[in-house]
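Hi support team,

I submitted a single chain yesterday and got back a structure, but I'm not sure I'm reading the token output correctly. Could someone confirm the output below corresponds to the sequence I sent? I've pasted both exactly as they appear in my results page.

Thanks,
R.
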Amino acid sequence: MTRKPLAAALTAIILATSALAAPAQAGGSLSINLQPTNADQERAMRAGLAIYSIVNSVKSGAAVRQNGHGNSAGVAQDGRGNFGVVHQDGNGHQGTVSQRGNGNAYGLFQFGRNTSGHVAQNGNGRTGATFQFGW
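Hi R., thanks for writing in. Yes, this is the structure output for that exact sequence:
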């Protein structure tokens, strides 16, 4: 007999919770941050960033690639052997990569519209990437 009150209570909680849920919003974003956890993952990520730089004819340790309108981006580096890229496809993106130290590599890739990403790498030999999708 105790199952019926328990089931009724759970049903009431579920209904109350679903009534409080916000309706879907127009506009939003999703960010995926990747940080290698071992040497093999780091080598693979650095290889991917190196391939990106070859395909996109990046001649120095930093690049900003924009395709769209109303975007703003920047790369700041203090150190040697760093690679940083901000790639924006779409409109209204804001993105920066700041690197302090030596031998760092990072890619910020923004797609869709109205994403905002700001990355700071401090130290030596760090690697990572962020992918942002906005709608």
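A quick pointer for reading it: The chain has one domain: 29-134. Let us know if anything else looks off.

Best,
Support desk
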